[in-house]
Amino acid sequence: MDKEGRILNGKFNFKAMPDGSLDKTKVICIYCRCELRYHRSTSSLKYHLLAKHTAEAEKLPRQMQTMLDSFQRRRMDNSTTNKLSTAIAKWVATAWRPIDIVEDEGLLEIIRIASNDCTYELPSRATTVAKIHNLYEDEKAKVVEALGQTNTVALTGDYWTFRSNHSYLGITAHYFSPQWELKSHALTVMETEEQHFADTCAEQFLQVARQWGIEHKVSTLTTDGACNMVAAASQLPVEHMPCIAHSLHRAITVSLQNSPFNSALAKCRKVIGHFNHSPPNALELEQQQIAHFHKKESLTQDASTKWNSTLEMIKHVLRNQEPLRDALALHPTNVTMPTTAEVEKLKKLETVLEHCRYITELLGGEKFVSCSVVLPALCHLSRVMEVSEYDPAYMVKFKETFKAEMEKHKEKTNIMWLRVATALDPRFKGLKCLSRPDRAEVWRLISALLRERQRPAQPEQPATYEPSKKRSALMFASESSSDEEEDYIEKCVERYRAEPTIDIEDCPQKWWSKHEGAHSEMAYLARMYLATPATSIPCERLFSLSGHVFQNKRAALSSENVKMHVCLSNWVSAK
């Protein structure tokens, strides 16, 4: 291209605009005045010369003629070209690449080398964006179809603020497929400009449910324990499930405040900061790790917003005591390692925090049942936190504070929903985590739920949701049932209770897929209760994904494109 705007040795000129400027996205052939699109690649222009002006193409310089000959000899077929362009669009969308990467000559060169020098023209920005939109619509249609095949859907929701100070609402959906696979999909990452008052939050959740056609299928909403989210959930016709992971880590934070562990933890933070904030210090630590035959690893600093980070910090310091001590001894410094007594404290704290980490990971999965595990897990944690006669005073204080804090949070959780979910899990249906009176109460509740399900369907009313009209699956049937219905319901419950309890390592979904025919009524309840996430971690993962999408090189993405890229990445990765 020369200074006068001529391309390909003067065979094409940029299109002149009425105001005298040049439109550098369009060129005009000097022979036939044909208008062609131009995106920094001359492949289509060369093809036009060969197809329409062969004689003129032969007059091009020798080097350019060689390029044309190569272009004419080896052209990628249309099917392969389309597949490759679609794959590039999918890569851009799901690998969080800036859209202008399709103009990268290096990428084009890689493709040409991989295809044995076949001629290929990278798709334009507009083509790539259009393909991403098509991919989004295709994947969305699959999610809509899958949601249409289930009777109940559980949601998780949370708000998050990007670095650009824009607030977004993330919502995920969870349900069982007909084959009892636990499915998880992002429904939206939508920008919100209003204040997060309870009324506004409730309306936004309903709006998303309506958009996906599931407003009458939603059974539960799992959120954190923020006051506005709790108040919003109380206005919705669904059951609210407070996030157990938030409660657990809030209890840890409170238990460590003004505790005897403060001095030891402060030293750990100072030691790690000494090496993490200085490359020369970090290099000296690495050399000491090698000298002591330790694995080379960077140290983790704890953060209040990062779960389990205090545990990771303690583990790193305890694992690297000798390398850290020797590295600190190389130069005069006021940074000191924890004393022997403080190391002993850290080891005891590590032991109990390891149990908390295990439970967080156990309850935070999306591919396996978590709601039914909450009560057995909390029962296990309660036993771990029992004070023994061998516990020093600082551990007694920590355990007592932790247990008291967990009891406060337990009072706010949806305990009845958790109990029913536990009973419907064939691993825990013995309900050993409950007292005998509570076990009997759970089975009476399940009988009432089945009785409610046996009622004739009521005529569908217009959807006018009010707090007083909450559609709760936990309500007991108020009308008397016939003796035949009562007998049928009792037999359903007793037949299920008579089944042997499966091993804790076995999969409850596989058990229900094999026994659904024998326990069809109970299976309906199991699909509703066991699909409920115990935590809002799926939303936290969604926001982590959003952080990858919304990078500095993609800071100009519109809110609609943020939603499209995040949801598409979530749907594709879930396969």
From TrEMBL:
Domain BED-type: 21-53
Domain HAT C-terminal dimerisation: 494-572
InterPro entries recorded: HATC_C_dom, RNaseH-like_sf, Znf_BED, ZnF_BED_domain_contain, Znf_C2H2_sf
GO BP field: post-embryonic development
One Pfam family hit: zf-BED
GO cellular component terms given for this protein: nucleus
Any GO MF annotation of the entry: zinc ion binding
Primary location: nucleus
UniProt keyword terms in alphabetical order: DNA-binding, Metal-binding, Nucleus, Transcription, Transcription regulation, Zinc, Zinc-finger
Organism domain of life: Eukaryota
Location within or outside the cell: Nucleus
Cited PANTHER family: ZINC FINGER BED DOMAIN-CONTAINING PROTEIN 39, ZINC FINGER BED DOMAIN-CONTAINING PROTEIN 4
Official protein name in the record: Zinc finger BED domain-containing protein 1
Species the sequence originates in: Oreochromis niloticus (Nile tilapia)
Gene of this entry: LOC109203771
